[in-house]
Amino acid sequence: xxxxxxxxxxxxxxxxxxxxxxxxxxxxxxxxxxxxxxxxxxxxxxxxxxxxxxxxxxxxxxxxxxxxxxxxxxxxxxxxxxxxxxxxxxxxxxxxxxxxxxxxxxxxxxxxxxxxxxxxxxxxxxxxxxxxxxxxxxxxxxxxxxxxxxxxxxxxxxxxxxxxxxxxxxxxxxxxxxxxxxxxxxxxxxxxxxxxxxxxxxxxxxxxxxxxxxxxxxxxxxxxxxxxxxxxxxxxxxxxxxxxxxxxxxxxxxxxxxxxxxxxxxxxxxxxxxxxxxxxxxxxxxxxxxxxxxxxxxxxxxxxxxxxxxxxxxxxxxxxxxxxxxxxxxxxxxxxxxxxxxxxxxxxxxxxxxxxxxxxxxxx
Length: 364
Known about the structure:
Layout: E1 2-6, E2 9-13, H1 29-32, H2 35-60, H3 68-71, E3 93-97, H4 102-113, E4 117-122, H5 125-135, E5 139-143, H6 149-163, E6 168-171, H7 190-215, E7 221-226, H8 239-259, E8 264-271, H9 277-288, H10 292-296, H11 303-316, H12 326-337, E9 348-351
Helix pairs in contact: 4-12, 6-7, 7-8
């Protein structure tokens, strides 16, 4: 006996039983007398049977033996091996300062995945060259101290010489300051204040200045700078750092007014705490009161330190659940760099989970 289906019903067909040898037992005579209708119903039956068999085989197929072809084309968010479609920066040329690690590195990787040619500008030569070599020939590294005008001029000139254009500048390089000198306004170190302002504010101003000179003749361009929630709300960082980030927000708005007439958009991003090497080191120094040299020369944090930092930030956050990471800020930069934000300029994109809408302050 064999199971067989007919018009949605299941019959047990016994070929030895003479009663089943008459086909009219399974198919009514009025259908047999109409060949075209009979052929159509047979075709429909075969199609339904095949679809049902395929569906049952997929449902009962163990996950561990899913054939490779069945997995082909499945997109899992976050896989760097799967290029996005569409590639939102195809044909664009971008510079990312402070691009060797942290938010800068995440942005370099994301911009590259979206088709941009990227110039990594940093003073971390080993990390910058390693990242460039890892990502391929469309990514280059240039040593650049953003506080030195000759370095910024060289950065722009080398980019134009190599790629012929500059579409995007991401002013991301910055310092938090030596946390061993994090003191009251009444006795803080003015030399440390000057160092923070030189990198964070002077560096951004020089970047905008020289990028504008390159972009104005083309009548288009996008300039993005990394600010901070410390530039939006008081009590979220040291005095020098907070002052520098307020300055970046103000400079962004002012230059957006001037450069808009040339088709150049200028925006900034203000993140909350991201567990980068810089922030983890500052947290470590504040907790352990390390020596000055150790607070200035930080290395790659351990996984445990990153997890503790993220847990600390989550405890302060209004938005519970997600964890803010470098890639989230890179996604914000991608939005501001792409055509999706073609009418956004002079804007400070705050990525903080709502922290600046509350009165939660980390404290000085």
